[in-house]
Amino acid sequence: MLKQTGKALLIGATAALAVTTAAPAHAQTGTQAAAAKVSKHQEVRCVKQSGRTCAYSVSFFYWNKKGSNKRGLNYVQTARSPYKAGKARWLYKQPGGKTHVGQSWRKAHTIHGANAAEVDWGKPGATVGPKFRKGTLVCVQWKNVAKKACHTLK
């Protein structure tokens, strides 16, 4: 079982890396060159449960313009291995605020060629999506799993 879990985590992390490296580099025009540069970030979290190496993994993709205190969350992906049907959602909590649901429960689908379930939201490699203040806590929660995977947007 640990082999499958590690394999699914590796597949999820590899897919996440492929998405970041495959993002097209757009040529800039004179007016775009004057605009602030965009920094893209990717964070991966692994949630351990009942002594297992990794019950599920989560990748957070977000971006910001240099000098800005806003962060754009463009893609969130979570994978669970071995495959177990379920639903997941993502939540956020801005500094000093209360927790809100970013997207409601979404049904998992099978990752082709792996024994894993996946749920994703957003558009990989883009600079679109909801914008949050720096320091916002973003979490993913699987239904009927007590632990959440979280990351603070830097």
Written account of the structure:
By secondary structure, the chain is an alpha+beta fold. The chain is built from 2 helices and 10 strands. The protein has helices spanning about 1-20, 30-35, and strands at about 40-45, 55-65, 70-80, 85-95, 100-105, 110, 115-120, 130-135, 135-140, 150. β6 (about 110) and β7 (about 115-120) form a beta hairpin. The model is unreliable at about 1-10 and about 15-35 (pLDDT under 50).
Which key terms come to mind for this protein?
154 residues, alpha+beta, four-stranded antiparallel β-sheet, 44% strand
Please specify the SSE layout and strand pairing:
Blueprint (H helix, E strand, L loop, with lengths): L1 H20 L8 H5 L3 E10 L8 E10 L4 E11 L6 E7 L5 E9 L1 E2 L6 E6 L8 E3 L3 E6 L6 E4 L2
Antiparallel strand pairs: 1-2, 2-3, 3-7, 3-8, 4-5, 4-9, 6-7, 9-10
Summarize the structure.
The protein is α+β, with helices and mostly antiparallel strands and 154 residues long. The chain has two helices and ten strands.
Which regions have little confidence, pLDDT < 50, spanning 5+ residues? 1-11, 13-34
| Principal-axis shape | globular
Classify the secondary structure makeup into a structural class. alpha+beta
Name the helix and strand elements from N-terminus to C-terminus, one letter apiece: HHEEEEEEEEEE
Percent helix, as a range, is 10-25%
Number of strands: 10
The gyration radius over C-alpha positions equals 16 Å
Distance between the termini: 35 Å
Strand content: 35-45%
Mean pLDDT: 79
Quickly count the helices.
2
